[in-house]
Amino acid sequence: MLALAGRLAHTGGMTDTRINALEEQIAHLTRTVDDLSDIVARQEREIAVLTRRAQLLMEREAEREAQGGGGIVVGDERPPHY
Q1: Quick one: how far is CA 52 from the chain centroid?
Q2: 74 close to 80: Cβ distance less than 8 angstroms
Q3: Residue 69: burial class (beta carbons within 10 Å; 0-12, 13-18, 19+)
Q4: DSSP string covering the chain, please?
Q5: How many angstroms separate the first and last alpha carbons of the chain?
Q6: CB atoms within 10 A of CB 22
Q7: pLDDT tens readout for residues 24-65
Q8: Structural domain boundaries of the chain?
Q9: CA 56 to chain centroid
Q10: At how many degrees (to 10) do helices 16-66 and 2-10 cross?
Q11: In 10 A of CB 38, how many CB atoms?
Q12: What's the rounded Cα separation, in Å, for the pair 82 and 76?
């Protein structure tokens, strides 16, 4: 980057101020990309945990229904303990 900056300065290209501003902007953008990468990685882990929990709940419910314990009381029906 410094070699490019030196060539541009000698050829009447970018000024040192402009180069510094661009370097500062690149640093901010790099930081933003790193921050967003961390957020995406954290969200990926959270999604994996939530997906596993949902899967376990669905398996548990399927087992409960297969055992016939999922009876639903409709209207004025007496519960089985009467």
Answers
A1: 16
A2: no
A3: exposed
A4: -HHHHHHHHHTT-S-HHHHHHHHHHHHHHHHHHHHHHHHHHHHHHHHHHHHHHHHHHHHHHHHHHHTT------TTPPPTT-
A5: 85
A6: 13
A7: 999 999 999 999 999 999 999 999 999 999 999 999 999 999
A8: 2-65
A9: 22
A10: 140
A11: 10
A12: 13
Question: What count of Cα atoms within 13 Å lies in the side-chain half-sphere of residue 8?
Answer: 13
Q: Which residue has the tokens 């409960």?
A: 64
Question: Does the pTM exceed 0.70?
Answer: no
Structure tokens at 14: 């970018």
Q: Which residue has the tokens 């180069």?
A: 19
Q: What tokens were used for 82?
A: 């009467």
